Amino acid sequence: xxxxxxxARAGGWTEGAAVAIATGQYKLGPASLTEAxxxxxxxxxxxxxxxxxxxxxxxxxxxxxxxxxPTAKACLERLTSLGLLRRTAHRSASVPLLxxxxxxxxxxxxxxxxxxxxxxxxxxxxxxEEITTAQEAMRHAVERGDFRGQVQHDIDFHxxxxxxxxxxxxxxxxxxxxGEIHLTMGxxxxxxxxxxxxVVGEHEEIxxxxxxxxxxxxxxxxxxxxxxxxxxxxxxITAG
Length: 240
What we know:
single chain, 9 helices, TF_FadR/GntR_C, transcription, GntR family transcriptional regulator
């Protein structure tokens, strides 16, 4: 199975850093080894190639990618710190599956950060190029029927809101929950429970409010957008 992976950055990754080969081993590209390894594992976890509950050990990573154990360990620690893996005492790290209470808390946290970002941008009427680029890329992914692309560019859009504030501290705080946001998008495939154009349209409402400098409308559109996403994920959990 072939997988295109990427180099981690604030808000997403750049395609092409790692490619799986037919033997089942994973060859890392010329980018920073640690970053490429992190990006490849994150991609596999988010898209379910490494399933919820599946163990991800240092030895497994070292064998699959041909890296040293210390490099594998550092990567697993980073994935754990971002919520993409969980490790309990004396047990190997594994991919978590968030329960309903954790999902509720995650969306509460998302709205806190992203609403503040949307309001800040609206006050300044600052619709950044990063936001419009992410939205355009998502629209193209919808036209192609590219589900993975839709997920990634949706992630990029929300990161662009946070990055638009130009606050290093806000970005660092958002990164703490970003891993779990990505995880829920991939695991619960909530985008498949609605028309892809619906999500694009909801993004447009947020963008319109920012462009017009309407703070209340920006906050309301963001809250409605995340509320609908929350409902889709919760429905998936309830359906089992």
